[in-house]
Amino acid sequence: MLPWESRRERRKSRAGRRPNLDALESLEGRELLAYTPLGFSLPDLSVQGFTAPTASWGGNLTVTVNVKNTGASTLIEPLALVPGATSTADAQPTTVVIYASPKRDSPRSIPIGVFNVPVIPQNDVEQFTGTFALPNRPLRFPGDGGTIYVHFQINPTRTIMETDYTNNISNSSPVQIQAPLPQIQAVGLDVPPVMQPGDTIQPNIHVANLGPNDTGPQGPVTVALVASVDRKFGPGSSVIATYQVANIPGINTVPTKNPVFGESTLDLQHNIVTINGAAVTLPVRPRTYFIGVVVDPFNQIKQLGRIGKIAKNMKFMLIQPVGPPINGLPPAGVLPNAGGTNQVFPFPVRTGTIVGNPVTPLPPTPFI
After folding, report:
1. Reported confidence tier of residue 96, pLDDT bands at 50, 70, 90
2. Which is nearest to 347 in space by CA: 191, 228, 151?
3. Cβ proximity of 211 and 304 under 8 Å
4. Does 125 have pLDDT greater than 60?
5. What is the mean pLDDT of residues 316-336?
6. Contact (Cβ atoms closer than 8 angstroms) between residue 104 and residue 85
7. d(CA 133, CA 139)
8. With helix as H, strand as E and coil as C, how does the chain read?
9. Mean pLDDT value across the chain
10. 45-177: CATH number
11. Among 27, 94, 160, 223, which is 20 to 30 Å from 124 by CA?
């Protein structure tokens, strides 16, 4: 202090050395902890999920959730250096509550299920899948043909202290509400690419259920491999073979982010069954015709879009041409083996199948 400074100036200089309490109070908890010598060590949980695209009131709905803990320890924790040791940034057991709303941004929602989440270590992610029963249609919720929206919330009671609670609620997944019926459709037919009348083939058929209910309660589903002179199934068509499928699960058991219908993925979805048919011989006449698949040809299964309709609406699907006969072309699906006799050629080719004369590999050439 200089002799000529006034008392007011001396007070002003002392105030500049004091901390600004208003500025400190405006900082968030994360900022305050980040400026302490010890840092911080808390979990940070977030959740995202997806559902099956279709369900019915009173039926089941399968959902999948991904739970992340992006918390990281900045404290010096000697015990955490041991592999598998716990840290204060690990999230203790909690729950994920599943809610359904009549609109995407509606505050009105009802709980439809709960996931019990175990300990999630720091910087880790876990996935959980479960099937839950929807209630009967709640008041002011859409009926058949409408859409509900499902979202998820982790740590709903905030019993676990986190660095950020704003990411504990996921985005909404739309679920279309339909009548509790199946919808069966043939989605795949594997046969040789070139066929002639009288050939012996081994067909593989894929049948999907795009409805929200299994087919089992209505009994087995009949699938027919049919030959027709045109691209329609009707008078003059002949049944080559029939198959019985005990049950085809509904698409309500297949949670997916982007719904894919049919066999567009390498791993078939849960609502698709495969029929590995036995070898069958195609009709020898006429010279040209078509083969295809007809699902439920006798109209025994009540399905979406077919209630009260007659069998003329059966679809002749996955049509493949047969013929005309080509001179000198060996029959499709029948190839000579080493003994000179004919064997049924499986299609598609399975691992380990020997076609024609087996090839003996040459010994490796030494490197000179």
Report:
1. very high
2. 191
3. yes
4. yes
5. 73
6. no
7. 17
8. CCCCCCHHHHHHHHHHCCCCHHHHHHCCHHHHHHCCCCCCCCCCEEEEEEECCEECCCCEEEEEEEEEECCCCCCCCHHHHCCCCCCCCCECCEEEEEEEECCCCCCCCEEEEEEEECCECCCEEEEEEEEEECCCCCCCCCCCCCEEEEEEEECCCCCCCCCCCCCCECCCEEEEECCCCCCEEEEEEECCCCCCCCCEECCEEEEEECCCCCCHHHCCEEEEEEEECCCCCCCCCEEEEEEEECCCCCHHHCCCCCCCCCCCCCCCCCCEEEEECCCEECCCCCCCEEEEEEECCCCCCCCCCCCCCCHHHCCCEEEEEECCCCCCCCCCCEEECCCCCEEECCCCCCCCCCCCCCCCCCCCCCCC
9. 78
10. 2.60.40.10
11. 27
Give the residue from 179, 185, 305 showing the smallest Cα distance to 245: 185
Cα dihedral 294→297→302→303 (10° resolution):
20
Dist CA 275 CA 205 (whole Å):
5
Closest CA to 312 of 298, 292, 301: 298
- Predicted model pTM: 0.72
For 194-254, what is the HEC assignment?
Answer: CCCCCCEECCEEEEEECCCCCCHHHCCEEEEEEEECCCCCCCCCEEEEEEEECCCCCHHHC
Tokens representing residue 365 in the block: 């050439």
Q: How far, rounded to the nearest angstrom, does the alpha carbon of residue 89 sit from its chain's CA centroid?
A: 31
The domain segmentation of the chain, as residue ranges, is: 45-177, 184-322
Q: Do domains 45-177 and 184-322 have the same CATH topology?
A: yes
d(C-alpha 134, C-alpha 136), whole Å: 7
Domain spanning 184-322, CATH class? mainly beta
Residues 185-199 as b/e (b if ≥16 CB within 10 A, e otherwise) read bbbbbbbbeebbbeb
Q: Cα(66)–Cα(52) distance, rounded to whole angstroms?
A: 15
